Amino acid sequence: MQTEDSTYADRLKTLQFARWKQLLRVQAPYQANLRRQGLGRTLDVGCGIGRNLAVLSSDSVGVDHNPTSVQIAREAGYTAYTVEEFEAAAYPKESFEGLLFAHILEHMPTDDGVALVNSYLPYLKPGGRAFFICPQERGFASDETHVEFVDGTKLLSMCDRVGLTPDHVRSFPLPRMAGKLFTYNEFCLRASKD
């Protein structure tokens, strides 16, 4: 399975809208964590079907290389584009207060991740924030499309390579040791553009 085909988008939809997840509101702590970052108007890079767009400010924009995912996000009422559509829309540089890279960097080799961040960094205002979320070990193993494990050290190195000033890496929602067993434990890092 590749992340750009409709099968992947359908998988995301099935996972997100599982009845038990809706009843237990399992996304609530993750949504609260994202809100706490104070990202403002955000460009959600790798937005998928729009799960995080539901939490970000209403003027936020998503971009994804999977056209089926983008269509699902649009049907939910979010502003989302394919990569080509986003480029054609010609958003001005420095037009976003935040950039979000949630569960995307682990889908590519490190150098490709650096190139991806660099390609969207011009859209971030000076003083703006980038927020990175990557799965820990159990989450990484749960998806066959994951390519490279991205831990806190790699996130800090990436920030250095692209010129962002990072805060400290956090393990969320549980302490770091839980990441080997709990699928949904994540590395989170917020960084700022000088």
TrEMBL record:
BP terms from Gene Ontology: methylation
Pfam family, one: Methyltransf_11
Record EC number: 2.1.1.222, 2.1.1.64
Superkingdom to which the source organism belongs: Bacteria
Domain Methyltransferase type: 43-132
UniProt keywords, alphabetically: Methyltransferase, Transferase
Gene3D superfamilies hit by this protein: Vaccinia Virus protein VP39
GO MF annotation, one: 2-polyprenyl-6-hydroxyphenol methylase activity
Entry protein name: Class I SAM-dependent methyltransferase
